[in-house]
Task: structure prediction
Amino acid sequence: MSARQRGIGTLILIITLLVAPTAISLSWYKITGNPLFRPLGITDENMRAYFGTGKWIEIVAEVEWDSARSGRLARADMEQALRRAFEAKGVEVRVVFRDSASGTRILYRVGPSVIGPYPQARAAEGISAAVEAYRMNVPFKP
Result:
């Protein structure tokens, strides 16, 4: 056996040792469907779906948008302001807009809890309550 053949054999062995754990793990994931074995794919959503541990709790800010009474504020600005306010508290929010003709109001839904509605000028008052309701259902992750 020449030095070149030994070098190629060593290279193939190294590649096999590097790839084998991932290939075995991915194969086992495909067979069982258990997300614990999926390489680099463990997420809270996958774990909850597989193990059936409770409902997915999220904060949804439902904005009844009245473009005639919203002043100079655009939808994108309102969405960005809400996202930043919740990010400052360490949680994520999903913002949903609905058209309205009776003024802009914000309603916060956290699982079964409903907080508000708050008029646009007082929207910040419901953020702390929504975050507290969220943390009652979901453990705090700093």
About this structure: The domain at 59-137 is CATH 3.40.30 (Glutaredoxin). The helical segments are 3-32, 44-51, 75-88, 125-137. The two ends are 58 Å apart (CA to CA).
